[in-house]
From TrEMBL:
CDD domains with a match to the protein in the record: ABC_HisP_GlnQ
PANTHER family per UniProt: AMINO ACID IMPORT ATP-BINDING PROTEIN, GLUTAMATE_ASPARTATE IMPORT ATP-BINDING PROTEIN GLTL
SMART domains cross-referenced by the UniProt entry: AAA
Membrane topology: Peripheral membrane protein
Organism: Georgenia alba
A GO molecular-function descriptor: ATP binding
Family classification: Belongs to the ABC transporter superfamily.
Protein name (record): Amino acid ABC transporter ATP-binding protein
All copies of domain ABC transporter, residue ranges: 25-259
Chief localization: membrane
Cellular location(s): Cell membrane
Pfam families xrefs: ABC_tran
Record's keyword terms, sorted: Amino-acid transport, ATP-binding, Cell membrane, Membrane, Nucleotide-binding, Transport
Length: 263
């Protein structure tokens, strides 16, 4: 199990030791509308280096939009978002570099269907970071090993199970050596028996000190791995707290209502 992973090993180690606890992702008064829908309302959120923040909330509350805004897949109307002290660039090469710093794993695996598993992982480092192919391959194989799919490296995504594909998606994001990893419901599209193999990889990353923002309905993961739970409803951060406090004694009626429906 992931209990064997030490605190300072693996791909997250470099970031874990760089000023743990200092702010890494900072959102200030972030607003976003889709037409008349105010989907993000004055969101303030600071994620510290090495912190694991689990975002939960009802469907439609703005969780995916929040993730996409952090990665600038979705422009915001007002407010600011910084990653490691830098504003998000609008476009161009600077944006590609920033996206490399923010790894993202989606509900749908989003692998390149016409590329092998190995190519899926090496492509970004070669194209965006200018890593030499031989080196990219070596790093990719180590990451695939780490997520338990190294023996599938020559196959194509459709030949893998959903759980394997999602672990490849994690390896692909890690290959860019991100400062923070965003996960948007990474296990929601998986068959139940594959959920844990993905959550185990995520739990070991968390234990290594990777900074993570995780949207999930897996409350067991939240209790086990989160430093903080952020509860969103209708475009607002309604409540945030340590998992034991949040699950044990939610303060807001909206959080109580949400949690009661999960049981
Ligand atoms: P969650 O991930 O919490 O389910 P989302 O961030 O996906 O919520 O969506 C928040 C709200 O914004 C929903 O009402 C959704 O229908 C709406 N929405 C999301 N994306 C778009 C879009 N591209 N255009 C219009 N409305 C959108
Ligand atoms: Mg969503």
């Amino acid at each position: 199990t992931d209990e064997t992973v030490g605190p300072a090993s693996g791909p997250a180690a470099a970031y874990a030791t760089a000023a743990p606890g200092s702010p890494l992702v900072v959102l200030e008064r972030v607003n976003k509308h889709f037409g008349s829908l105010h989907v993000l309302q004055d969101i303030d959120l600071t994620v510290a280096r090495g912190e694991v923040v689990v975002v939960i909330g009802p469907s439609g509350s703005g969780k995916s939009t929040l993730c996409r805004a952090i990665n600038r897949l979705e422009p915001i109307d007002s407010g600011s978002i910084t990653v490691d002290g830098k504003e998000l660039p609008e476009e161009g090469k600077a944006l590609a570099q920033l996206r490399a710093e923010v790894g993202m794993v989606f509900q749908q695996f989003n692998l390149f269907a016409h590329k092998s598993i190995l190519e899926n992982v090496t492509l970004g480092p070669i194209k965006v970071k200018g890593v030499r192919p031989a080196e990219a391959k070596e790093q990719a194989m180590a990451l695939l090993e780490r997520v338990g799919v190294a023996n599938q490296a020559e196959k194509y995504p459709a030949q893998l199970s959903g759980g394997q594909q999602q672990r490849v998606a994690i390896a692909r994001a890690l290959a860019m050596q991100p400062k923070v990893m965003l996960f948007d419901e990474p296990t929601s599209a998986l068959d139940p028996e594959m959920i844990n193999e993905v959550l185990d990889v995520m739990t070991s990353l968390a234990r290594e000190g990777m900074t993570m923002i995780v949207v999930t309905h897996e409350m067991g993961f939240a209790r086990r791995a989160a430093n903080r739970v952020v509860f969103m409803d209708a475009g607002q951060v309604v409540e945030e707290n340590a998992p034991e406090e949040f699950f044990g004694a939610p303060r807001s009626d909206r959080a109580k209502d949400f949690l009661s429906k999960l049981l």
